[in-house]
Design brief:
Helix content: 40-55%
Structural class: alpha/beta
Radius of gyration: 22 Å
CATH superfamily of the largest domain: Periplasmic binding protein-like II
Strand content: 15-25%
Keywords: DNA-binding, Transcription, Transcription regulation
Domain HTH lysR-type: 4-61
CATH class of the largest domain: Alpha Beta
CATH architecture of the largest domain: 3-Layer(aba) Sandwich
Family: Belongs to the LysR transcriptional regulatory family.
Distance between the termini: 43 Å
InterPro entries: LTTR, LysR_HTH_N, LysR_subst-bd, WH-like_DNA-bd_sf, WH_DNA-bd_sf
Protein name: DNA-binding transcriptional regulator, LysR family
Number of strands: 12
Order of helices and strands: HHHEEHEHEHEEEEHEHEEHEH
């Protein structure tokens, strides 16, 4: 009977999810060399190659693809058994700024759950300023936000680049104020847009304000207004219209992670958050 090593299976699943030995090592709080040793130990134990690695790509082998779901089941059963020994459920509240909650959000939540099924994860979406205020009041355990003003603390996860996005059909009539959509008056990304327009002497008006991200997306997608979005989370079907409309270039920012958690399991969850964001925000080769 083949006995599986939990840490080796953890290493395999992390590599499969991150498609990177480096990111997997970061998520598990270890080194790339240690991850490679654990994977080799697992492959030797089951007698099959699970990961195919080239200088440009890390991917599952055919046997690895078959084994992956079973590996997840194995880890979930192990974590459930360990969690059953704990009398009190643990809760982890993470705030994610609406402008940075992009395609990495579903894999982020999946990774957190796979990492620790006994952890009850709650997500709060809001603008960066509101989340930073909530973090400082102790209402949330961690915040993933756009860097605000000159605040220099927090762990940098990735750069954040902004653009003016609108529907291909959007038209701006000369002599009329530029029509903008924004999340709320306290949204820092709104400030980036309005300050850039004011500095360039371009008149503007807000036609959608404070309706939430879905309302802003709907207004922009329908061609009623334009909005500033991170290039990674612009609504599907919209395009960058800044050059066509002669709009000013927008300054880049950074996505940062704030947390004061110190216990081992929570710090491990934070490493998973950081690794997922870095993986999904990494520049394409």
């Amino acid at each position: 009977m083949t006995a599986l090593d939990v840490e080796a299976v953890h290493a395999f699943v992390a590599i499969a999810d991150m498609k990177s030995f480096t990111r997997a090592a970061e998520a598990l709080g270890t080194t790339q060399g240690a991850i490679s040793v654990k994977l080799k130990r697992l492959e030797d134990r089951i007698g099959a190659r699970l990961i195919e690695r080239t200088p440009r790509q890390v991917r599952l082998s055919a046997q690895g693809a078959v084994f992956l779901d079973r590996a997840r089941d194995f880890l979930a059963a192990h974590e459930a058994a360990v969690a059953a020994l704990s009398a009190a459920p643990r809760r982890f509240v993470v705030g994610i700024a609406a402008h940075v909650a992009g395609p990495e959000l579903p894999p982020l939540l999946a990774q957190l759950h796979a990492h620790d099924p006994g952890l009850r994860i709650e997500v709060r979406l809001d603008n960066s300023r509101s989340l930073l205020d909530a973090f400082e009041r102790g209402e949330i355990d961690a915040a993933i936000v756009r860097r605000e003003d000159d605040r220099r603390d927090g762990e940098v996860l990735a750069p954040e680049h902004f653009g003016w996005f609108g529907a291909p059909s959007f038209e701006h009539r000369q002599g009329e104020p530029l029509r903008l959509a924004a999340l709320s008056p306290s949204c820092g990304v709104r400030d980036i847009a309005t300050q850039a327009l004011d500095a360039a002497g371009i008149p503007w008006t807000e036609v959608f304000l404070g309706g939430g991200s879905s309302a802003v997306t709907a207004a922009v997608s329908a061609g009623l207004a334009i909005a500033v979005f991170s290039e990674r989370v612009a609504p599907p079907g919209t395009i960058e219209v800044g050059d066509r409309l002669g709009l000013p270039r927008l300054a880049s920012s950074e996505i940062v992670l704030h947390s004061t958690l110190t216990d081992a399991k929570s710090r491990a969850a934070l490493r998973t958050i950081a690794a997922v964001y870095r993986e999904h925000r990494a520049p394409a080769p």
